[in-house]
From TrEMBL:
<comment type="similarity">
    <text>Belongs to the N(4)/N(6)-methyltransferase family.</text>
</comment>
<dbReference type="InterPro" id="IPR001091">
    <property type="entry name" value="RM_Methyltransferase"/>
</dbReference>
<dbReference type="InterPro" id="IPR002052">
    <property type="entry name" value="DNA_methylase_N6_adenine_CS"/>
</dbReference>
<dbReference type="InterPro" id="IPR002941">
    <property type="entry name" value="DNA_methylase_N4/N6"/>
</dbReference>
<protein>
    <recommendedName>
        <fullName>Methyltransferase</fullName>
        <ecNumber>2.1.1.-</ecNumber>
    </recommendedName>
</protein>
<dbReference type="InterPro" id="IPR029063">
    <property type="entry name" value="SAM-dependent_MTases_sf"/>
</dbReference>
<feature type="domain" description="DNA methylase N-4/N-6">
    <location>
        <begin position="26"/>
        <end position="236"/>
    </location>
</feature>
<keyword id="KW-0808">Transferase</keyword>
<dbReference type="Pfam" id="PF01555">
    <property type="entry name" value="N6_N4_Mtase"/>
</dbReference>
<keyword id="KW-0680">Restriction system</keyword>
<keyword id="KW-0489">Methyltransferase</keyword>
């Protein structure tokens, strides 16, 4: 049985949850926070809302003013530095426009900057393809906490700072759609590389719970926070289903 894995899910503001976590209790933070693009896109009056029923700029969770968002991320990194173990790793997904802000804030809180990488979506929606470049990339930034190197399970292979996957597949939307849901295979890449079995993974902005499903599947403990009730429900349902599947597999 692999039932010793612990999953803790909180329908709450991550800063309140992080304040309750013990110092140096987390091995890897893998997260995809708001990119502070919703307001920017709304202000430019793009017609994305009309084109996409599920446009995240209208969802209400990414519409802070830049300085409000920056202050929130500043407080987040302060707590992240405290709860992450010495030499624990952190991957933050971010729009390429905001990478510099994240590096500045995390460095202020003693994170050691390692890499800026790119996730390329092989099949993005070709919106306005005759007007401009199709938006098919997002950035991710890799840091190590209070040290310069951490777990890096490359197994002798050269790992590039670039990962290419398709967007989420149909069965990953089974419990509802999150407008910026990440593919499971993308998060698996980082969990395998930057953590070991039985480690504790934290996603403070878990949305539909992708990091939780992947952690459970790869035998890692998981702590996840999501402020929105509906997304939290999607995450709980997705993760509970994988727990049941896991138990069924274990009993066979
Ligand atoms: C970019 S999405 C994450 C998507 C996720 N990676 C997935 O695969 O579904 C960011 C999420 O953070 C949540 N959020 C925003 N502010 C938060 C806060 N202070 N505490 C917890 N969750 C928050 C939003 O509701 C949103 O679902």
């Amino acid at each position: 049985m692999t039932s010793k894995i612990k999953i803790q899910l909180y329908n709450n503001d991550c800063l309140s949850v992080l304040k309750e976590l013990k110092d140096e209790s987390i091995d890897l933070i893998l997260t995809d926070p708001p990119y502070n693009l919703g307001k920017f896109m709304k202000d430019r009056q793009t017609n994305l809302k009309k084109m996409r029923e599920n446009f995240f700029g209208e969802a209400g969770w990414d519409d802070l003013e830049y300085l409000e968002w920056k202050n929130h991320m500043d407080s987040f990194f302060e707590e992240a530095n405290r709860v992450l173990k010495k030499r624990g790793s952190m991957i933050i997904f971010m729009s390429l426009m905001k990478i510099e802000t994240i590096v500045e804030l995390a460095s202020k809180h003693k994170f050691y900057y390692k890499t800026t990488g790119v996730w390329h979506k092989t099949n993005p929606m070709p919106r306005n393809m005759n007007l401009h470049f199709i938006n098919s990339t997002e950035g991710w930034i890799y840091f190590v906490n209070k040290g310069k190197t951490g777990t890096f399970n490359n197994k002798g292979k050269a790992i590039h700072d670039f990962i290419e996957t398709s967007v989420i597949r149909g069965n990953e939307k089974k419990y509802g759609i999150h407008p910026t849901q990440k593919p499971e295979v993308l998060f698996e890449h980082f969990v395998n590389l930057l953590s070991n079995e039985n480690d504790v993974i934290l996603d403070p902005f878990m949305g539909s719970g992708t990091a939780g499903i992947v952690s459970k599947r790869l035998n890692r403990n998981f702590v996840g926070c999501e402020i929105d009730k509906e997304y939290f429900k999607i995450a709980t349902n997705r993760i509970e289903e994988t727990l049941e599947q896991q138990i069924a597999i274990d009993l066979d």
